[in-house]
Amino acid sequence: MRLGGLDWGRLLELMRKELRQTLRDPQALRVVLVAPIIQLIVFGYAVNTDIQDANVVLFDRDHTTVSRELGQTLTASGHFRIVETADRAQDLVEALDHGRAIFGIEVPRGFEGDLAGATPATVQVLVDGTMSNTAIVAQAYASQIILRFGQEHSALVPATAGTGARGHGGTGLPGVDLRVRAWYNPNLESRIYNVPAVMGSVMMLMSLLLTTLAVVRERELGTLEQLMVSPLRPVEMILGKTVPVVGIALLDLTIIASVAILWFRIPMRGSFVLLFAASLVYIVCGLGIGLLISTVSATTQEAFMTMFMCFLPMMIFSGFFFPIANMPAVFQFVSFLDPLRYYLATVRGIFLKGAGVTVLWPQIASLAVMGGAILWIASTRFRKTSV
Amino acid sequence: MRPLSRTRLWAMARKEALHIGRDKRSLAMAFAVPAAMVLLFGYVITFDINDIPTAVLDQSRTSQSRDLADAFRSAGYFRITRQLASDDEIAPLLTRGTVRMVLVIPPDFAKHLAAAEPAPVQCLVDGGDANTASIAINYAQAIVASYSAKAVLKGRTLPVPARTEARVWYNEDLKSSNMIVPGLMATIMMILSALLTSLTIAREWERGTMEQLAATPVHRLEVIFGKLLPYLGIGFVDIILVAVVGGVVFAVPFRGSALFLMVTAMLFLIGAQGLGMFISAAAKRQFLATQLAMIATMLPSLLLSGLIFDLASMPTVLQVISLVVPARYFVVALRGIFLKGVGPHVLWAQAVGMLVFAAAGLGLAVRAFRKEIA
Fold first, then answer.
1. Which residue of A has its CA nearest to B138?
2. Closest-CA residue in chain A for B198?
3. Does the beta-carbon distance from A133 to B148 stay under 8 Å?
4. Quick check: A223 contacting B, CB < 8 Å?
5. Contact B302 A177 (CB under 8 A)
6. Taking CB atoms and an 8 Å cutoff, what residues of chain A touch B127?
7. Domains along the sequence of chain B with CATH
8. Helix-strand-coil split of chain A, %, nearest 5
9. pTM over 0.80
10. Do A144 and B138 touch (CB under 8 A)?
């Protein structure tokens, strides 16, 4: 049967062969179906950048009710947990050296008196800067809490009922009262933002793993010659190798999306149809990259090294860990070549914001263009390697 | 047990080195990958948040409200890209991600300020990226507080009852490259070592050369150790390479002892490469071996090592799981050696962790490796 220049009978035969080759190995099947779930669950919990119960050492030189109350306020915020109290400044340093705490707080002698009087009381915070991202956020939280604590306990500022309990903003003081509301993620949980990103990375890793070896394996086993002497055309070969894998990858997507929604309770505000449509384009993109890698690699080892070289930068440029807008301009341009970038924007948009096609079409179109181009290059490369 | 023969061990190592040397591209990549990754991570990763795209909906339209918007503009953290006319415009902008924050100044803003009452201003933040959002909120509050002081108190000093004086240790400028480069060494070497070694035994099985090996008097310990030696060499060169690139390009301080670094690196490399060999011997097929090595090392050493995500804020179960992620010990040790300048008296627990890992990696590899052709 021929349609659109392709021999569908041959194509189906090749697809059946590929599917069988993948599924007949129970160990490989486990890698393909179980690994994504485990990865999503483990990493869904890991990608947490909230400051929760961060370890703090308190060095209280004031020893008054007020200074003790400051300690309790820090703990009550939920961000910090006082794991030790120090008696000497040296203890603070030691706790940081050993990594037992991410920062130390030194409440000065006369803290209570300063709060009652006119001189501002200064609380020293010693931050361990080795984890600079955590340090920045933790420092911000600590200074906010201390500032508010001071306002509530100062003799100069009239106390207003109900302050401090309202979270962000709202001091009740004269002057500008900033009332902050965070959309899409009112409690500012990092997980809601990061789990969809883990989904994207796991899907990419699976797509690459499934295809990278498709050609290399045939070459190493010597079965590539057999395929070459068969009347299969390069396009048919590429299609025959990708379509079964697309099926497996879509199954993976269904599984991990269910885990994200049912297990992690990630709000799904958008359309499932759009999610699957966008994912299909993305998977094709990933498979194209995998095929391209396998056509340019002579051995399994080369293929995997090349894949590693591709996957890590993809993660970095995608905006998974760091907002793309903060990267140096050159690297922002480079990130336009990263399919993961578009897919993360898409899944995050669909899950968190309920964004539709009208908002997300540039992302999906970019993925489609990229996927098409990569597949085209892969199939021309394939012809060359076959000669 | 027969004593290990140095000749046979050496011959095994030479054979493996020849294998590696023949595959020029893999060899080049074994050195290029770490250098390239450090440059990339070092340059691309930044935690500073600047120029947050912001829209202002000014319903007050007074000089006071314009001053407040100017205060946001001139602070450097926000870039006001839109002036809105009605609240219908807010939702689409945030949904599209065109702006990350919207400042809504209500009509009676100036009146409240003049009356020395609380003058509410609404700040809508795209909470999707919780980290960026909390930093943005913090900046916004600081700007508003200082504006408030000027507008309400008109020259009088604002009562700031308690303030915080923060001092940052070990990484005084909070440079992200100081945090990333030392830790990255562990992540890259874990992935690379396991990938390189995961093929070495499976290849012999697939190519049928295992029969030849089985026919020789070589002991399995000699095979494992012999195969390990050339990879250890590559690993050490990589570690030195990364340290030099980090020091020269990113000016990452090195405050600790080079000897201690080498000792811990040695333990770590033996463990990582032993793990790769174990996978290789157990899987017996290159395809499966590389897949397993990839899954066992790639994401865990990136996400469960404390390289980027703080282990202390993870659920207990995950913290327990991370105990078997060897990169976590090396990440802590590397940061300690490079940034804190601490030695074995602080890092002994990490060193013990890596020693256990090295013993386990080697032990598993030796156990799983069978010369006999079943």
1. A140
2. A301
3. no
4. no
5. no
6. 182-186, 188
7. 6-45+174-368 (no CATH), 52-153 (3.40.1710.10)
8. 65, 10, 25
9. no
10. yes
Cβ–Cβ of A181/B123 closer than 8 Å? yes
Structure-token match 């599924």, residue found: A23
CB A314 within 8 A of CB A340: yes
- Over residues A107-120, the pLDDT tens digits come to 888 888 887 776 77
Q: How confident is the model at residue A167 (pLDDT cuts 50, 70, 90)?
A: very low
How near does any CA of chain A get to the CA of B288, in Å?
Answer: 7
User: Can you list the domains of chain A with their CATH numbers?
Assistant: 2-47+189-386 (no CATH), 54-153 (3.40.1710.10)
At B28, which amino acid appears?
A: A
CA nearest to B130, candidates A46, A41, A187, A355: A187
**Is B199:B286 a contact under the CB 8 Å cutoff?**
yes
Residue-wise pLDDT tens digits, B307-351? 888 787 778 888 888 888 888 899 989 988 888 888 888 888 888
Give me B291's structure tokens: 């897949």
CB contact under 8 Å between B131 and A353, yes or no, is no
CA angle B156-B157-B160, nearest 5°? 150
List CB contacts (< 8 A) between B93 and chain A.
none
Instruction: State both tokens at B113.
Output: 């300020």
Sign of CA dihedral B343, B345, B346, B349: positive
CA distances in angstroms from A40 to A219, A290, A308, B262, B352, listed in the order given: 33, 21, 20, 35, 30
Q: Is the pLDDT of residue B28 over 80?
A: yes
- Chain B residues inside the 8 Å CB shell of A171: 118
B299, B318, B322, B337: best to mutate for the A interface, most A CBs within 10 A = B299
Q: Do A141 and B117 touch (CB under 8 A)?
A: no
Helix, strand or coil for residue A355?
coil
pLDDT tens string B124-145: 888 877 777 877 887 888 788 7
